[in-house]
Amino acid sequence: MPTIDKTILITGASSGIGEAAVRELAGTGARLFIGARRTERLEALAQELGDNVAWRALDVTDAADFQAFADAAVERFGQVDALVNNAGVMPLSALAAVKLDEWNRMIDVNVRGVLHGIAAVLPRFVAQGSGHVVNVASVGAHMVMPTAAVYCATKHAVKVITEGLRQEHDEVRTTLISPGVVATELGHDISVPEIADGLLTWRKKSLTPDAIARAIRYAIEQPDGVDVNEIIVRPTAAD
Ligand code: NDP
């Protein structure tokens, strides 16, 4: 007997929090359509977890690709009930370094990617009179610190977009999940060695991705009349 009888799209499912969310939700009987660019990882995960998990290559920075991803999920499972916008990147640097390409990549993945996801599912959610958008932001949606101005700006944007969606759509549930430090591959692309080293120190007190996966599951498994709008999950006694 499934505890979640829904079809759920999950982005950034090839590692970290996304992969953990797939593992957590697969145990509920939900049908999962998972995407990322490293398809060999998606394929292995789907193979391990069984027929309720299907995958397709996805680059969230490409709106047409995101629409094709959502359409493929409908073709495979007949419907879409929820979207977990989890894909994200965090190449931290000081503003003075003027790493324009990295700023743009964060905006493209973390902000445009979330909007492309909403664009791909919202008309369907409106037509069917229900749906759920879960956006993975960060504690960086609530604060800023040196080297993280652009990353935090993207996460502030995700917070505001999520709240705007909630206000505009009675039929759509919206959830913002804001993790603190989680031990994942995030930041592997930091191009400033001292900042990359600093991240390792920062991660000494960190959550494992399953902690965030449980928060995502909690939000999704509530009855349709219950909208969990925001969850912040930090390691205990984090700064
Ligand atoms: P990971 O680096 O492990 O996962 C990031 C995922 O995003 C990967 O699956 C990657 O897949 C995917 N991704 C990146 N770019 C694209 C793209 N253009 N199109 C599709 N998928 C893409 O990090 P986390 O699991 O930690 O990150 C997940 C989310 O959690 C992010 O939004 C992050 O900002 C947020 N977060 C993480 C925290 C942490 O401490 N780890 C803290 C707060 C928030 P692929 O490369 O295969 O495409």
Describe the structure.
- Helix 1 (16-26) crosses helix 7 (209-221) and helix 4 (100-128) packs parallel to helix 5 (149-168).
- The N and C termini lie far apart (41 Å).
- The protein has 239 residues and is α/β, with parallel strands linked by helices.
- The model has no long low-confidence stretch (mean pLDDT 97).
- It is built from 7 helices and 7 strands.
- It has a 7-stranded parallel sheet, sandwiched between helices.
- It has a single domain (7-233), classed as NAD(P)-binding Rossmann-like Domain (Rossmann fold).
- The longest helix has 29 residues, at 100-128.
- The structure holds NADPH dihydro-nicotinamide-adenine-dinucleotide phosphate (NDP).
- Residues 11-12, 14-18, 36-38, 58-61, 86-90, 109, 136, 138, 179, 181-182, 184-186, 209 line the site of NADPH dihydro-nicotinamide-adenine-dinucleotide phosphate.
What's the layout of helices and strands?
Layout: E1 7-11, H1 16-26, E2 31-36, H2 39-49, E3 53-57, H3 63-77, E4 82-85, H4 100-128, E5 131-136, H5 149-168, E6 172-179, H6 193-202, H7 209-221, E7 230-233
Parallel strand pairs: 1-2, 1-4, 2-3, 4-5, 5-6, 6-7
Helix pairs in contact: 1-7, 3-4, 4-5
Backbone shape: globular
CATH topology: Rossmann fold
Q: According to CATH, what is the class? A: Alpha Beta
DSSP summary: helix tally: 7
- Major sheet: size, sense and barrel closure? 7 strands, parallel
Order of helices and strands: EHEHEHEHEHEHHE
CATH superfamily: NAD(P)-binding Rossmann-like Domain
